TrEMBL record:
GO cellular component: plasma membrane
InterPro entries for the chain: Membr_insert_effic_factor_YidD
Function comment: Could be involved in insertion of integral membrane proteins into the membrane.
This protein's name: Putative membrane protein insertion efficiency factor
PANTHER family: MEMBRANE PROTEIN INSERTION EFFICIENCY FACTOR-RELATED (PTHR33383)
Keywords, in A-Z order: Cell membrane, Membrane
Region (Disordered): 73-94
Superkingdom per UniProt: Bacteria
Locations listed in the record: Cell membrane
Family: Belongs to the UPF0161 family.
Leader peptide range in chain numbering: none
């Protein structure tokens, strides 16, 4: 229930607000997608913390790149991500 409450405004942002703004996320998947996945994978509290940490990392002074939600809780970038092509294939199936 709490997960749905936290995910609803993110989905609203992705569908209604984000298309009106120029693309600015330096990571793939985007920060909003990352937060949704983190909430689903790690629960409402830890997922929200991970998502907020990711948003704070997403700035012009960072290189960015592929950074999926890790399997364990961390506030740092995922240093050993799985193959990016497998992630893209999963996204195409959705």
């Amino acid at each position: 229930m709490l997960k749905r409450i936290l995910i609803a405004p993110i989905l609203f942002y992705k569908k209604c607000i984000s298309p009106l703004l120029p693309p600015s996320c330096r990571y793939y998947p985007t920060c909003s997608t990352y937060m949704i996945e983190a909430i689903k994978k790690h629960g409402a509290f830890l997922g929200l913390i991970m998502g907020c940490s990711r948003i704070l990392r997403c700035n012009p002074f960072i290189r960015g790149g592929y950074d999926p939600v890790p399997d364990h809780f961390t506030l740092r970038r995922n240093r050993n991500p799985k193959d990016e092509s497998s992630y893209e294939q999963q996204e195409l199936k959705k």
